Amino acid sequence: MPRYPLADLEAQVGTSNVTVRNLRVEGGKVEEFARAIHDDNPEFRATERDEPVVAPLTFTRTSYFPQYRTATADWEFGFELGFDRDRSVHGEQAYEFERPVREGDVLTGVTTLAEVYQREGGEGGTMTFAVFETEFRDADGDLVVVVRNTRIETGRPVGGEAEP
């Protein structure tokens, strides 16, 4: 169970934090990212071309690198959830694009705690779910992509010896 009661977590739903600043989308970095995920799509190559390089769909994950995160954007995106890292897992990731992320974009991310709820699990006991939505906007303030991810904390360790 989280360190805080569910009602305290629910009280944070709808609040937002700036979590990413100045995510600069550079052609060479897009190409490196594409190589790292083993995607050889020519759209991701930084070559001499008339149009900007388009980034792979999951490129905004690079915003988790420390140089782009704001000081308050810890692993809980600046929210006080009290999740135990040893019992927390990544549950889901979804992307909703207004347009592709492109070379030349400078993105800012604002993360909102969209939903918190609990469900009974099996061996892990009560599971607490936190759903985050991060809106990435370009330098003009236009929405580019919304990233929705779910974190799950189990009520107790799964497998191994039970806690006393």
TrEMBL record:
Database matches in InterPro entries: FAS1-like_DH_region (IPR039569), HotDog_dom_sf (IPR029069)
Domain FAS1-like dehydratase: 12-145
Superkingdom, taxonomy of origin: Archaea
Name by which UniProt lists this protein: MaoC family dehydratase N-terminal domain-containing protein
Protein species of origin: Salinirubellus salinus
Upper classification of the organism: Archaea, Methanobacteriati, Methanobacteriota, Stenosarchaea group, Halobacteria
